Amino acid sequence: MDEIRKQELEQENLSYRKELQNRKRIVVKIGSSSLLHKTTQRLNYYQIDHLARELSDLKNQGKDVVLVSSGAAAAGREALGIDLDIYRQETRMNIKQACAAVGQARLIEIYQKFFSEYNQASAQVLMTKLTVADGESCRNLINTFEELLSLNVIPVVNENDSVATDEFLVGDNDNLSAMVSSVIHADLLILLSDVDGLYTDDPRSNRNARFIDYVPKMTDHLMEFGKSSTGSGAGTGGMSTKLHAGRIATASGCDMVIANADLGLKIIHDIMAGENIGTLFRADRDPDFHLSDYIF
Ligand code: GLU
């Protein structure tokens, strides 16, 4: 790319970032690895508390806020002291679903506790791919979101892992959060995980990988930068699921930012203030957008 075009893009990025403060409906997704202590794989209460504070503050600025939180399976494993590796492959799915059932309840209890510290009501919404694929349940889902948001509640969303079968499992919350963003017409999706954003290659294995802070348009070439590893082992998403989520979000008319929650959750505040953090994927609404084209 020539120098002039590079400078134009840098300028475009910086001025577009300033517009993020005007976004009205924001979906924040946090990955399992960002909710656990790296050394013990136990819940990081400091991080969850800080997340609740940042999101409650966004609410107080008059924004609609939806949280998509992973961590159910991890919280369940922690609660039951389960090491999945000792189970045979055939029984692992059942154990995982049982862990998710225990962990989801625990996670919501913790969120409710921290949100109430900030005088903020929260709710649980569990869904699968089927929920958006079926017209009637999708309408129900949208109505529930709209009602909760008009009541100033923060919905806390996760996949219904304990009942989802492979066929209808989204499998990762990157895509799930993009699906949620599209059905509720969110204008900003923030994906928080343990990576800084998009690189031309995996920076953990290639020291020459270049960081990309601004994506004005999703292209096939860009999709090749996706790698399916998180480096943490706690979650299921990698860069490829984030890029796929980016396709859904941007085509539905929603901006998306990938940022590193390990830098602390003030990062949400900084992104909203227009700072050049993480990778920004600019909304690029497709007039023929249909969610079903992206999820099956
Ligand atoms: N739904 C899964 C959980 O709560 C997480 C999926 C993901 O890691 O993206 O454990």
Counting helices, strands and paired strands, the structural category is alpha/beta
**In DSSP terms, counting alpha (H) and pi (I) runs of 4 or more, how many helices?**
11
List the helices and strands in order: HEHEHHEHHEHEEEEHHEHEH
The N- and C-terminal alpha carbons lie at a distance of: 35 Å
In quaternary terms, these chains amount to: single chain
Shape: globular
Uncertain stretches? none
Backbone CA Rg: 18 Å
How much helix, percentage-wise, in residues? 40-55%
Present as ligands are: glutamic acid
Mean pLDDT: 93
Strand order of the largest sheet: 3-4-2-1-5-9-10-8
* Percent in strands: 15-25%
Total number of beta strands: 10
How can the largest sheet be summarized?
8 strands, mixed
Task: Describe, in plain words, how this protein is organized in 3D.
Helices cover 44% and strands 15% of the residues. It has helices at residues 3-18, 45-60, 72-80, 89-117, 129-133, 135-150, 173-183, 220-223, 239-251, 266-272, 292-295; strands spanning 25-30, 64-69, 122-127, 154-159, 188-193, 198-199, 211-212, 214-215, 255-260, 279-281. The chain has an eight-stranded mixed β-sheet, sandwiched between helices. The protein has a two-stranded antiparallel ribbon with strand order 6-7. α2 crosses α4 (89-117). The longest helix has 29 residues, at 89-117. Residues 31-32, 70-74, 100, 158-159, 161, 172-173, 235-237 line the site of glutamic acid (GLU). Glutamic acid is lined by residues 31-32, 70-74, 100, 158-159, 161, 172-173, 235-237.
